[in-house]
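LOG
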Amino acid sequence: MVDHLTTQDRSKLMSRIGPKGSKPETTVRRLAHALGFRFRLHRRDLPGTPDLVFPSRRKVIFVHGCWWHRHEGCSKASPPKTNIEFWQAKFDRNVTRDRAVQNQLQDGGWDVGTVWECQTRDIETLTAWLKAFLDPKS
């Protein structure tokens, strides 16, 4: 498959993809709020700048894209067909960084949850997971 964009145009397009406010993240935020949980967004004073932070519960949630963060066993995490070495190195760095951030947060007394992009399509299961993760007493 040949890219129909020039290298400069592709770079410009990719640079416009932001890390915040994605559809999966918005879905998780709406569900958590509808369940009565209040949170802060993207606290920069925490390692990895978690997507949702529940300070009173000492819990954080990351909403990860399956492709960028390499969701194991997910069809959306298929490897690219070109420039394989570059992408594999990039994915390896992402996964290593994610693990390090999770360890730092856990060492700081935070419970860490991860919601994958593909999991946001099953609202019932996601709702049940949110309830169990955020309020284990219920």
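LOG (cont.) second protein
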Amino acid sequence: MHPVIAKTFGGLSTQYYFRHLILGALLPALVLFMLSQGGHHIQIGMIVFFVINTLLYPYSRFVYESIIHFLIGENIFLVNAVLMLFVKLMTMAICWSAAIFIAPVGLAYLYFHHSKAND
């Protein structure tokens, strides 16, 4: 595997990547199901966009979680479970829908992090 690809796309643990890949695939699956039930035509461009965002979602989520960890640290907040689930779903939807824009930041970070570790 080329070193750049190994340092970027291979930068996340396999368990982390596949966990978020599965969670990220739920949103487009739900949207496609709703579109098919409504009798709407699904365009190829939409499917390509869904696939790209789903594959990049784990890197987008990595950026989000890194920022939140930096801001919050190891603090624990006790909140209503319904509110927390709603916030979690909204952050997942935002990270998935903007993955094509957010993920390059995570990939760049992983590349520089793993390059520095190898030096």
